[in-house]
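PROTEIN DATA CARD
Card holder: Rv3651-like N-terminal domain-containing protein
Chain length: 326
Origin: Rhodococcus erythropolis
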Amino acid sequence: MHAAYAGQMAIKGMWLAVDIIGTAYGKDVFIHSAGGERVASTLPRCAGQLGLGKKGEMVVEAVVRSLLAGKEVPKVDGLIVESHQIDASDGTPVALIVWIGENEPDPRPTYNVWVLDMSAMTTRTSGDDPSMIGDGREAGEERHVQYLFTWLNPEDAWGMVGGYYDALTGEDGMLIQSYWSLRPEGAEFVHMWSSCRLRLTDDGNQRTLYGLTLRLQERELEANIASLVKYSNATLMLVEARNRIPLTTVGKHAPLRESQVAQVLDQIDLEQLASHNDPDSGAQKLLIDGEPYTAATFELHSARAREKHGDPVAIILLLEDSATSA
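Structure generated from the sequence above:
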């Protein structure tokens, strides 16, 4: 590292968040975010964007590699290094937050780490501020994933649920990412950017997401749909439309029994999709165990090629009484 820092080269200090799992999967250090903003790139690809020359890149590489290996970082005149590792609640190392630069550290951005069990559909959060989710969770407390949607900005639901589809179908090590915002009751918006890595264990039968969330100072919100506002007490059902394969159900009446899922698929028209501009255009009427429901189908935005993985569709189910009073 001394050689890399030769010539008293200046490095403008910044907080870097290193994706530990992503780094382990590839040959390069993977940068989650820097200076409180999304990066989602390997260090060689983003070094220029971060204002690092080749020597600066070498310094960052050396520091991060030493920290990840549990080694003491050699002291270099004019270089300030501070670090903080955040592990998931099950002990898995997920994020290395590190300051590298010639100046004293700025206040560190807020980072949370989380683990999502795709079988139980539960999350546990650790890190700087688990309470920013707004659902009253404590650090390490297991909560059903539906609590994440309690205060969710409706515009973000498309990408978020698409990410769940990717997690249910993706390969080990897949990167899934999303901007999202929450507005807990009586509070201001909390803006975040999250990325996570999919881990497959038990011969591929267990799917687990390990994620890192950065709290953003600001974010420009889109306001072109209001499609899920009226469905806040609804049940969400994910379906692979091409082969009509049910994937999972989340929400008010989840999990749906096999017979209930079959009733939905027997009655729903998966090609009658709601549009962003007119959410009611996709509304359909159906019965589940004799109870009247309003259903709407939404096309999901998936990072994966449809030719290989089909068409992910979300079905939102709402009891008639709730639908008319919403």
